[in-house]
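Before the break, one more example. Copy the sequence into your notebook; we will annotate it together after we see the structure.
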Amino acid sequence: MITRILIIFLFITTYSLYSQVLPGEPVVGYPKGTTAQITSITTTESVIAYSTDEKIFYYYDGTKWVKLFSENSKVIVDNELFFEDANYYYVSVRINSTDWMVSRFSRTNLNDEAFAMGSGTQPADQATVIGLTYS
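Here is what the structure looks like once it is written out:
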């Protein structure tokens, strides 16, 4: 009887934990999955995920998943810049002609990710990227 209870508990715990993230979460912090898996999830605004079947990134705008490509396949993401320090990896991207976003990922905890967004000049140096306010 105790064995059955333990097995049921482990199954429920494993299922609950697995259902919180997309399968195959990569080391750099971006979740990934098929487009169908990504678009079936509702999450917090500004999360980015990689579509393994389309080989492109999507971001969640607060209500829906949006391709980081326009309908005519022109790339919207521009000037992708990478930085790192002792604690974090940073990715600075231009989202469109006026807006940018910086993603910050912990080097040791994949669940520790934060984002900073703004308009105007894209943060293009390590000191600026590190000094942003992340949420």
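Residues 13-27 have pLDDT under 50 and may be disordered. Residues 115 and 124 are 15 Å apart (CA to CA). Try to locate both features in your own notes.
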